[in-house]
Specification:
Elements lengths: L10 E7 H10 L6 H8 L2 H15 L4 H11 L5 H11 L4 H19 L5 E4 L13 E7 L6 E8 L13 E6 L1 H10 L13 E3 L7 H13 L4 E3 L6 H10 L4 E4 L2 H5 L2 E6 L5 E5 L3 H4 L6
Parallel strand pairs: 1-2, 6-7, 6-8
Antiparallel strand pairs: 1-3, 3-4, 4-5, 8-9, 9-10
Helix pairs in contact: 1-6, 2-3, 5-6
């Protein structure tokens, strides 16, 4: 399932439903062992199918059930084809049939909605946590071997254990460190600016501080990242700070400028500066690339 030509190719979403997993357990004749089955299947990528089968046997799951499990997990074809086959298998499982219907609804939303990456129905997705009751999801990086970077699902009464029964919800968790590692490996960060502001106003102290604060307020109202140097120290020190912090422009408004209702806008990269009237500043910002 993919709904956008501008898909985010570096991630993929796997979906399943806990009711479908319950239906699989009932189809195997092991409905009471749904927890053992989902916990084992959830380890499939780590320990392989033989490891899963061995764990199921140690939990008391019958050899016949173990034999029947793999063909179900490996159903091929489109999501629609997989769900049609599951409907046949779940003729005796109300939970399984309900799970199929919920997945059909979810998939219809995905196919007609704004999702911008690939989504896949994966019957091996188990998320072996008992509080999930419906849809479960897992997000993986498509080109980086790092495991899941996000996962979660629906739970109908998780709040009940905290004294608030009957409240359903959907929750997800994000692996921030894994997402960072993936983006770093794929070069998705680009060039990040570390400068705290686009313009710094030189601080000359009183009596011009009010004038400087007025300019600062004007810039911020226009969405410009601006700051006023906190102390009226020597101009050289203030300029050095702007240069170190890679602030591209500074505004100088000393006694001479204020006396004429003007200010000086200086480019730190070229050293070019121009004297302008305060009311001209707004029109010059786009020309300065701000």
């Amino acid at each position: 399932m993919q709904t956008s030509s501008a898909a985010i190719h570096w991630i993929s979403i796997r979906i399943n439903n806990r009711k479908v997993l319950a239906g699989i357990a009932e189809y195997l004749g092991e409905g009471s062992r749904i927890t053992d089955i989902t916990v084992a299947v959830d380890k499939l990528e780590k320990i392989g199918i033989e490891g899963v089968n061995e764990e199921l046997r140690t939990k008391g799951v019958s050899d016949e059930a173990v034999r029947k499990l793999l063909p179900v997990l490996e159903l091929k074809g489109t999501a629609s084809a997989k769900l049609s086959r599951l409907e046949e298998l779940f003729s005796g499982s109300e939970a399984g049939k309900k799970g199929v219907e919920e997945l059909k609804t979810l998939i219809s939303y995905i196919e007609t909605g704004p999702l911008s990456c690939v989504a896949e129905l994966d019957l091996t997705l188990a998320r072996g946590l008992n509080y999930y009751t419906g849809a479960i999801i897992e997000v993986k990086a498509a080109d980086v071997a790092i495991g899941s970077i996000c996962g979660g699902g629906r739970y109908d009464d998780l709040t009940g254990i905290f004294g608030l029964p009957g409240v359903s919800g959907v929750g997800v968790s994000f692996g921030a460190d894994r997402i960072y590692d993936v983006m770093e490996q794929l070069g998705l960060f680009g060039e990040i600016s570390v400068c705290p502001a686009e313009i710094m106003i030189v601080n000359f102290g009183d009596p011009g501080l009010g004038f400087a604060i007025g300019i600062l307020d004007l810039l911020r109202k226009k969405g410009v990242r601006a700051e006023l140097y906190p102390d009226p120290v020597k101009l050289k020190k203030q300029m050095s700070y702007a240069d170190t912090m890679k602030i591209p422009y500074i505004i100088i408004a000393g006694e001479e400028e204020m006396g004429k209702g003007e200010l000086t806008l200086k480019s730190m990269s070229t050293g070019e500066q121009r004297r302008i009237r305060a009311e001209e500043l707004e029109s010059l910002l786009p020309l300065a690339g701000i």
